[in-house]
Amino acid sequence: MPIENMEAVAGVSHVIQLAVAPVFLLTGVGAILSVLVNRLGRVVDRFRQLEKHQISSEKVRQAVDAEMLALSSRARLIHWAIGLCTSSALFVCFVIAALFLGSILQVSLSTLVSVLFVLAMASLVFGLVCFLREIAIARGSIHLTPR
């Protein structure tokens, strides 16, 4: 194999090594998205369950309305968390693509890769903050269930 081909293979293998960490990050974000989608499904199911019931007592109606309000807030926060975590995953994909493009074009895209990675981390952080807030609302609304 000519030396030029070996250098190209070495360059590609180096890019693959650099791309491994973002790929693991992508896997983690995917797991977080799975949790968020499951939580959103449970919130929607509970909301639909509450909508179906005919409520005769005013006290029970107020408790159901309060729970539905909390569920709406939770759904909104989960929606934001899903959007932000999905944006994070997309930025990670762009990081990986930029690494390979830089290698193929033999140009330094380190600034672009850095900016994309910071955007990915910021999106992930804000998505997790939304998730944490949703959990706090879920925890705080436990006592709202009528007896």
Account of the protein in words:
The protein has helices at residues 3-52, 58-105, 110-140. The protein is an all-alpha fold and 147 residues long. It starts with a helix and ends in a 7-residue tail after the last helix. α2 (58-105) runs antiparallel to α3 (110-140). The protein is 88% helix and 0% strand. The protein has three helices and no strands. The chain is rod-shaped and about 85 Å long. It has one domain (3-144).
Q: What distinguishing features does this structure have?
A:
single chain; mainly alpha; 0% strand; 147 residues; 3 helices; rod-shaped
Which helices and strands, and how do they pair?
Elements: H1 3-52, H2 58-105, H3 110-140
Helix pairs in contact: 1-2, 2-3
Overall morphology = rod-shaped
The secondary-structure element order is HHH
Relative strand content: under 5%
> Over the alpha carbons, how many angstroms does the gyration radius reach?
23 Å
pLDDT < 50 stretches: none
The biggest beta sheet, please?
Answer: none
> Helical amount among residues, as a percent range?
over 70%
Structural class comes to: mainly alpha
Q: Helical segment tally?
A: 3
What is the gist of this entry?
The chain has 147 residues and is an all-alpha fold. The protein has helices at 3-52, 58-105, 110-140.
